Amino acid sequence: MTDSKPKPKKPRGVARLLDGKCIACGARCQSSCPVNCIEMTETGEPIVETAKCIGCQKCIKICPAVALEMYFTEAELKILAELAAAAGGAVVVEEQDEEGAVLARKLAEYRGVWVFVEQTEGEVAKVSWELLGVGAGLAATLGVELCAVVLGENVEHLCGEAFAHGATKVYLLDAPVYKHYRTEAYVEGCCHLIEKYKPEIILMGATGMGRDLAGAIATRVATGLTADCTGLAIDDKRNLMQTRPAFGGNIMATIMCDKYRPQMSTVRPNVMPMPERVAGAEGIIVRDPFTVPEESIFTKVIEIIRDSHSKSAVDITGAEFIVSGGRGMMAPENFALLQELADELGGVVGASRSAVDAGWMPGDRQVGQTGKTVRPKIYIACGISGAIQHLVGMQDSDMVIAINRDSSAPIFEVATYGIVGDLFQIVPAITAKIRELKQKNT
Ligand SMILES: Cc1cc2nc3c(=O)[nH]c(=O)nc-3n(C[C@H](O)[C@H](O)[C@H](O)COP(=O)(O)OP(=O)(O)OC[C@H]3O[C@@H](n4cnc5c(N)ncnc54)[C@H](O)[C@@H]3O)c2cc1C
Q1: What would the pLDDT profile of 129-142 be if each residue is shown by its tens digit?
Q2: 383 CB less than 6 Å from ligand 1?
Q3: Distance CA 2, CA 278 (A)
């Protein structure tokens, strides 16, 4: 005779929030929930609708602050104890846990933070050094090496520069086939290095080259890529938290790639601070002999022709002083006021998108999400309201001076100094004062 008593079903429990632990990370728990049982409060904390919760634990696993836990009723705890006793006291290993262990082992094969050093004819894009700066912080948190990846022909001298900017190791592919950037050759070279040395994070500049290469590599190695990140950090499970504007810049989204390696991000120039250069710093160069047969590459670079327009055009990204104008300038000729002030400061004139869209300033002067990211010593915003899409492009300036006649304009929230008033009076007054001070000092 068999025992007809049915085995009780293993209770799944429900998720619940622990008091005071939530860090309002950006609703990661909510987006992970497969049954939409999590609502967010105005302060960004989750409210779990327990009647709908299926106890899948996805929100608990994704929470970077360990602010959620599983909750079981007394009756459920009793059933769990009975099941454990029936299993001889052994811990019941869930299928899910086994999957998790396999994944953890796979992810653990990847170690190290890599920065792709973008060079054209031996000249390095400065964003690469900025990325070594942010990469150093990530590597220190993870307790791993910060490595640079250099591809080119006769580019070994760039390894020294990479060490000076914080790398401790450089993977070098130096061969004629890498002389000029070509997607096929660089993808093959980088994928070879990735498959051989297995980095857990790869950072690239969000430049024309970086965007092209990063997308192609991510597709080849079947991993995720987050473009145009404005913030990078590590959570308590070694995952890279990649923050970037989303939905037209109205929210900041933190994106994770927690099941695949490497984790790949691109970052625009000037978003991250430049690290201090340590002359004479040394490290290890790994010279990998891997090359790609020239005949397998369809693209041939015949000549590099520098864009003469871009040489003569004003580069607002490198300026130390920027005087920017928005819709409050009212007309294109009024930008002459800003030019006068910029000339006194030795700076350049920038613009909001409204001013560019109105045809008052050329597109290469636009600051913001769809324009340039700038990080000058002083940014003077004149007649600019401070929409989030503008702020993301200038809020990391060392000092922001805002001039606006509307005291509630959002630009004042990021301003070091705010002047409420009519820019047509204030800007000429500042210019005159600077001239006066300069004359006194000569
Ligand atoms: C997907 C997307 C991407 C975008 N990308 C960008 C971007 O890269 N860069 C960008 O700038 N915007 C961008 N925008 C547009 C952005 O949302 C705003 O519309 C824009 O920044 C507003 O420009 P503004 O501040 O010049 O104009 P407004 O918002 O119209 O502000 C004009 C300001 O001038 C002040 N003012 C008027 N007269 C005077 C005076 N005499 N003296 C002093 N103050 C005065 C007013 O009080 C007001 O605050 C983007 C929008 C979207 C949807």
Answers
A1: 999 999 999 999 99
A2: yes
A3: 78
- For a mutational test of ligand 1's pocket, the pick from 316, 352, 373, 426, i.e. the residue with the most ligand atoms closer than 8 A to its C-beta, is 352
Q: What residue's CA is closest to ligand 1, atom 18?
A: 387
The enclosing domain of 191 has a CATH number of 3.40.50.620
Same domain, 76 and 155: no
One domain, residues 56 and 121: no
Per the DSSP assignment, residues forming a β-bridge with 379 are 322, 400
Q: Which bin fits 221, alpha (ψ -120 to 50), beta or left (φ > 0)?
A: alpha
Query: Does residue 49 have its Cβ closer than 6 Å to ligand 1?
Result: no
For a ligand 1 pocket test, name from 385, 394, 395, 401 the mutation site with the most ligand atoms within 8 angstroms of its C-beta: 385
Cβ of 327 closer than 6 Å to ligand 1, yes or no, is: yes
Domain membership of residue 93 (yes or no) is no
Is the distance from the beta carbon of residue 248 to the nearest atom of ligand 1 less than 6 Å? yes
Which residue carries 């860090």 as its tokens? Answer: 23
Question: What residue numbers bound the domain in which 253 lies?
Answer: 109-296
The pLDDT tens digits of the residues spanning 90-129 come to: 544 455 566 778 888 889 999 999 999 999 999 999 999 9
Average pLDDT over residues 271-291: 95
Q: Is 42 left (phi over 0), alpha (psi -120 to 50) or beta?
A: alpha
For 61, residues 6+ apart whose C-beta sits below 8 A from its C-beta are 32
Same domain flag for 115 and 67: no
Sheet strands (E) in 135-239: 146-152, 169-174, 201-205, 225-229, 231-234
